[in-house]
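pasting for ref
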Amino acid sequence: MAMVLVCGIANLGCDYLLSAMARAEHLMSQNLQKKSDDSSGLTIDTKDEGEISLLDAALRPALTVDYANEGASLLGDDCSEKLLLKERCIEVPDLCKLFLGNLGFKCYALCVSLYCYGALWSFTAVFGNAVALVAPNSSDPYAFSVLLYAIIVIPMSFLELSEQKIVQVTLSAGRIFMIVLMIFTPLIATIFCHSNAQSSCTSHFSQQTMPNGAPLANFSGFHKMMPIMVYAAIFHFSIPSLAKEVSRKSQLGNIFAMTFVLCGLLYTCIGAIGAWYFGGDVQQSVNLNWADYHGGTGVIFSDADGQKLTWIHVAWWARMLSFFILIFPAINVVSTFPLYAFSLGNDLMGIYYGDDVCLIEKNRCITSVFRAIAAIPPLIGGLFVRDLGTIAGYTGLSGLAIAFCFPALLYIRSTQKLKHMGIPYKTHYERLGSSIFAAELVLVFGLVSIIGVFVTLVLKR
């Protein structure tokens, strides 16, 4: 139920962002059209926001749109027609600057930066914990794995990244295959045991022959689970980039809704089956439970002291499945780390240099410094805090703001601004829950969740 709730509210946040993007694009088109009729540059004066330079906004690279050949605004004078995204998908930082002002922009940039640092830190923990299981024997195989990870990803973080589509498609197929394996291998192990007599039941995971079981509900760990669920479901800062690639913009709401449905179902299946089968033995990175998977094949061997147990003569396919589930997350984060470091470095540069960032980003030396600032600290932090649950828990706090608070604020402020200016503000992406009152509830829910989860995490350390 908790995952369904999080995905449902996160989908509302997605609708709010799409509506704010459509309103911002319409506002820019109106401003640019009027600017073409006023060579002195047009400004709009509002009671509570002062003067907004639309000429300056029109010249900003992220907001520039060529409507000169259209001869009219996007919707003309028909206020009954709903706004729809066209060519320009305005990025969330620009939405914050347009509707929430400089303070809103800086707060959002801070939240995204903290989230990206946490994500990079979690990637380090995932790689370190996974590779440590297959790394050469050493006094600290985890530290060895993190060092190997740093050697790979730091140089990649300094490159101008343009990942090929074939790489993304391959990784996506690998993720789906891994999820399917993680759902069905415990179920198959249980079915095989139930089909045989209890005395002849063959284990598939180490020496475990039956599911360990788990309580149907346990709210004692909800404060830990809440930010982790948000961390797993958030991609709101990428919505403009994803929307730009969709040709039928009218279907964006349905596309993202189906994404959240699929995300919620798969995460719920993995979480429920993992908790039910492994019980108290479930690992923070659940894929590590497949380290001793042998698929009911092989025999167990103990050393001379009888302390270390090893499975030998395991079937090749079982070894392949175990190795794939253990290593694929590490392969995946090797590809993902440079992308996050690239984005975070650019965000930090934008916060530091402000409007001059377009000139500074051409300086390779400066961009390399900021990408180093983005990439190196999470790798160092990963050596000291290795628990993925702890890292994801604190990272999810900023995710709560990105997924719940800022989309609701943008929806409220964009509605108020366009209504005050007397131009159309209804969008094609407004559905159940798309109202000022509902957005205020989501905003309050996000703020209360951030405060409550943070206090609980600190008190129960």
